[in-house]
Amino acid sequence: MKIAILLFALAPMVAFASAPSPEAAASDLWRSLSHGPGQGGDGAAVRGLFHADAMVYGGRYKEGAPVFSAQKASEFMESVATPRENAFYECEVTREVRRYDRFATV
Fold it and tell me: Where is the signal peptide (predicted)?
């Protein structure tokens, strides 16, 4: 009985220890967005990276003006998996990771 209780108490720690690092999560995200012509990104991989209630925020330029977007992660996941006519390759120019206890910004 004592062993079962100990294993039950350690289970959350094991799950936390096996979680990907912020660096690995960012790499998985960029890799899952890329795809060939007529294909979509890896929606299953993206699904594993986001909390069900997450929001995805982005910024880009359209006709020379900055455009801000916000959408539910579920909508973002569907969009990633949607096949596109043209190929898309996502790459990073630089990466900075800042850790704050159990949280990080990448």
Answer: 1-17
Supply the pLDDT for residue 48.
87
- With respect to residue 13, please indicate whether it lies within any of the assigned structural domains: no
55 lies in which domain range?
A: 19-105
For residues 44 and 55, what is the distance between their CA atoms, to the nearest angstrom? 17
Q: How many domains would you assign to the chain?
A: 1
Contact 70, 55 (CB under 8 A): yes
DSSP for 42-104 reads -HHHHHTTS-TT-EEEEEEEETTEEEEEEEEHHHHHHHHHS--SS-B----S----EEETTEE
- Could you tell me if residue 34 is inside a domain? yes
Looking only at the bridges linking them, the beta strands covering 65-72 and 98-100 are unpaired
